[in-house]
Amino acid sequence: MRRREALTIIVGSAAAPLAAGAQVRARLKPLRVAITTRQPRSASFIVAFQDRLRELGHVDGENLALDVRHVIGNDDQHFAAMRELVDLQPDILIASGPEAAVKAAIAAAPALPIVMIAVDYDPIALGYVRSLANPGGNITGVVFQQPELAVKRMQIMKEALPGITSATVVWNAASAD
Asked: What domains sit in the chain, N to C, each tagged with a CATH number?
């Protein structure tokens, strides 16, 4: 055996227990996930998220800390809730709902990983991500474009009710784009 190979084996053997110890210590700190949402913690999608995390071995209160802030008001409440969550030192931020949620996450913690659940805004057009397939930076997530579905819903209604001659659609300001 050559000297270089022997040194590699010896150094690798000596470092292995240190690396194993680091992994054990890292697991002692629970994964902290922070979420702002317009839905209460009992909402079906949050319950389903917790169930899936549990299936993957992440149990709230054991090796997971799931911090949820229910935001029902204006944009300022998103910013206040996100600042409060960032003070808890999360590993991941989930910004669910309107554009104000992702804006608040970026303002509160520009370097943390952010998962957006974009509802009724286009994060590509607004410059938050390059594309959904390759978002770049520290932001990723999913987009729910309700305005695009509105046209399809009207088509289905027209097919279901062929005699209808007019319809009124009411939309809110959060979906303006």
From this structure: 28-145 (3.40.50.2300)
